[in-house]
Amino acid sequence: MNVHIRFLGGAGTVTGSKYLVEHDGQSLLVDCGLFQGFKQLRLRNRDPLPVMPNHIGAVLLTHAHLDHSGYLPLLAKEGFHGKVWSTAATRDLAQILLPDSGHIQEEDANFANRKGFSKHAPALPLYTEDDALRCLKLMHTAPMGKAFEPLRGWTARFTGAGHILGAASLLLEVGGKRILFSGDLGRPDDLLMKPPEAPPAADVVVIESTYGDREHPEEDVLAELAPALQRVAARGGTAVVPVFAVGRAQALLHAIAQLKARGDLPHALPVYLDSPMAVHTTGLYARHLGEHRLSAAQCHDMEHGAQMVTSVDQSKAIAQQHGPKIILSASGMATGGRVLHHLAMHLGNHRNMVLLTGYQSPGTRGATMAGGSPTVRIHGQDIPIRAEVVQLASASAHADASQLMDWLRASPSAPHRVFVTHGELAASDTLRQRIEHELGWRALVPEHGSTWAA
Ligand SMILES: [Zn+2]
Questions:
Q1: For the residues of 18-47, what is the DSSP string, one character each?
Q2: pTM (2 decimals)?
Q3: Is the pLDDT of residue 39 over 90?
Q4: Helix 248-261 and helix 221-234: axis angle, to 10°?
Q5: What protein residues have CB closer than 5 angstroms to ion ligand 1?
Q6: Pairing state of beta strands 139-141 and 353-357?
């Protein structure tokens, strides 16, 4: 009996990760992500899967980012009722991220209906907050490094991938094949997360390639962050920092706390974390000590170095604060969330700054701002961009191309085949070529929807 992998997402794009593994009449889904970014991609979330959700036996999540977990509420709504396996920290994060995602889907649908710009009348949310809360009941946890049985006769094991809290690579053993999914791999020198663990031996490797064609610069986050924040503080401006609520927000809080501690930023410079999700996530680091680099004392400093903003009234009150300040707010690519209001308010003034952190997916407002556009569309209006736009090169939660190659090179044996996924086509193909030329391994970039024998 052959083992097959179907690439239902995360192929030729960084979003929508969904890999269906089939063997002997059983199947499970590795990751269950939402498509994000270009509308053409987002519309794929509305297409039915080529397999009935109630025929999928289990879901295994490598980590909680929505491009890996955000389709789960819809899968459950459409009939999936198996177990969803993840690490404990990923489960804790999913409890924060998925209901919020449902809430955003509902808000977007309501907004479209109010403004009348839905082509379908009325616009319906992909899923609701309640759908998300229901699917969380399916979640089960497995510790890092310990084998478990997601389906009869299938063995799975998570190993640390760095990247974000709870993130794992996944080794699946089924039908005599060992299939390794890298998940999203972090950088060895990440501020918060430990380096990814070396990969176990596998017959087939499915590796991410977000930065498959790029190298991160040598400089560290603190060295890059300090002059930008000093500049905006000196001219009395506001730095609006769109952050991913999970990971980037905490890394920046930790970095700012360190800059203040060593005197590189004034102690009194107000810092706001305006994202209920990021605030809740920040509290999780102390609960999962040992899974990241921070000590209990550093977790404490991170939590207390900024004013935690959760209510809408508090959020609006920030705008009334005069003088220099730093506002960290979600989402990281400015695709939605409270950061839009802060951007709309601050983009027009040259004293202010937009500090973009991490990868900006094409089609998002983050990419528009990073690309030097004179305006960006927010809430139906073209907002002129007069603020300084800075993109942090170093603050990425992803390994760069050489780091991806180093991870592969640490494999105890050569796999028969490598599938290069989770990247824009150019990035995936560049990494594919490096794998073939430098390692001599067979590698290919699977097409969206294609099926391959493992
Ligand atoms: Zn991720």
A1: EEEEEETTEEEEE--PPP-SSHHHHGGGGS
A2: 0.88
A3: no
A4: 70
A5: 65, 184
A6: unpaired
